[in-house]
Amino acid sequence: MGGMALNSRLLGLAFASADTLVEIDGEGRIVLAMGAAPATGHSPETTWTGRALTDLFEARSADRLKAALAGLAPGARSDPLDLLYSLGPGACRRVRVRLFSLPELAPHCSCALTWLGRGFELETPEARPLLTRDDLMRQAGHALSARRSDPLTLAFVDVTGLEQVQGEQLDRLTTRLHGALQAASVDGASASHLSGNAYALLREDPDASAVQDAIHNVAALEGVDVSADIRQVELTPGVDRQATLRAMRHALEVCISNGALDDPDVTFRKTLTRTLEQMDSFRAMVKARDFALHYQPIVELESGAVHHFEALARIPGCDGPESTIRLAETLALIESFDLVVAEKAIQQMLQPGYGLTRVAVNVSAGSLATDTYGEALMRLTANHGDIRKRLKLEVTETATILDLPGTQGRLARLRQAGFKVYLDDFGVGASSFDHLNHLTVDGVKIDGAFVMRACEDEKSRTLIRHLVEMCAGLELRTVAERVETGEVAELMLRLGVQLGQGWFFGKPEPQPRLDRPALAVPGRRRGAVESWG
């Protein structure tokens, strides 16, 4: 050591705050060790001196340490290394190591060690498949149902640093990571992949340090330095567990759509609270029938005469009901709303002077997931047989039809009772033709996006033309939505569409307007009223 004073040596050792300080010679052997022990019963000063520093570490960590020492220039300081210190056969503890080479100490090197986490077994937990987001929320529902008051923790985890890993090593690390996240979750099977390197897991322990340790430990096994941002939110059992579960699922989807870990704990908590409030408000609105229906004419393009009206909901406080309806579908509240819409439309059709009026009401695919809607509609019309022939059902596809055979059976019973059924917004999704293939209906409504583009876009015109030909072969009626101008109305007539709906023919009004004169499209009768455009 060249007779160097102890305080000079300590100056080199104490270059950073650390738990344990070590000096090694040019051969990599420990000549001085002091500070905290890595485990009970270990004293660095008495058990490390004279040993090669690399012998203290797990094999892959030892290789990383050797490479760092070999590349360390005099006067240089290494980046921190997360390594695995060997506690004995099959056990390790993670330690962050920094190296520094003071020129006056050469060839000696100073090492600072900071102990991280707790000791763990080298064997990684068995890698169970991660849950889907829906399964995670179902698991949360089951876990909350089993609790009376004890909260559950939902942890959002964002892992960074994986981009430095590729190929087989990335596959191994991902497998280890998934196993570690599952092991840290409730019952060892309540972790889910959200998107990218973002995960969520249910936990009973609100202390996130165990999750941090698990992630860092498996990364250190592969010789990779990663970081993990963990945000947590407490889930408290609610009175209406099913409603709470649906609200949680919606809140989770909002978190993901906003960027999986863009303050997910805050986003989730706020969204969950707001969603539960919206659920209560929507239920109260439906129960009080506190919304109105407006009626928009659907016109025979050939004659300009009104064929029937569509009943459109107008919800207080909403510029348009679409977002409210979509949320109601997401939260499984749509069936009661659809029934009240039908009830209000039927009451209008029973008013004096409206005995021949035909009205279409929307019914969500979600409302057709069970027999309840159809049975309730049959009861509503039980004493008014003619209503069934005048009431049309427009099946909206904003909610996915999961059970096509079951839905077909329910629609078949309604059609047998006299109701006409149309598929709404046809062409807006890839499932439209599949639905038409599996469901027996009376007509389709061509999505307004196609209709609006048709005047300028040859492809849209071709699609509509072929759709009309196909529907003619299936004996289905066609309705063009969003006919806003006479030019569009004339084009739809030329393409063979039978019915049109849009501001060119009339805006929605509080009652069906029966005194409206027939309005022919341009080209068949000039001078048509175009003030709706």
Condensed summary:
This protein has 533 residues and is of the alpha/beta class.
How does this structure look, described?
The chain is α/β, with parallel strands linked by helices and 533 residues long. The protein has helices at residues 6-13, 44-47, 59-70, 133-145, 167-183, 209-221, 241-257, 264-288, 322-330, 334-349, 372-380, 385-390, 404-416, 432-438, 448-453, 458-473, 486-494, and strands at 20-24, 30-35, 81-88, 91-100, 109-121, 152-160, 191-195, 198-203, 227-235, 292-300, 306-314, 359-364, 391-396, 420-426, 443-446, 477-480, 499-501. The strands form three sheets. The protein has an eight-stranded mixed beta barrel with strand order 10-11-12-13-14-15-16-17, surrounded by five helices. Helix 7 (241-257) crosses helix 8. Mean pLDDT is 84; it is low at 1-5 and 525-533.
